[in-house]
Amino acid sequence: MYRTLQVFVEKGIVHTIPTADNSILYALCKDNCEAGHHHDHHVHFECDHCGTTYCLDDVVTPDIKLPAGYSSEQIDVVVKGRCKACEK
Fold this sequence. Notes:
The chain is α+β, with helices and mostly antiparallel strands. It has one domain. It is 15% helix and 32% strand. The strands form two sheets. It has a three-stranded mixed β-sheet, with no helix packed on it. It is globular and about 45 Å long.
């Protein structure tokens, strides 16, 4: 199953979501992702109370200016706190 998920990542079908315990979650990519190039530059939210991880599609990752000679392939931003369901 892991190999199948890795092929989906490589083909731009799913993207990975990092977690605090170094496991990996997967989420479907949007239409603008393609093989070898993910364009899902959004923030992920991890609820400390229920443990659910959400893709916050309307919140984009910040523009990061790297020093000369560096290039990025992936930017992961995870915000932790309480989700709206647990806040009630």
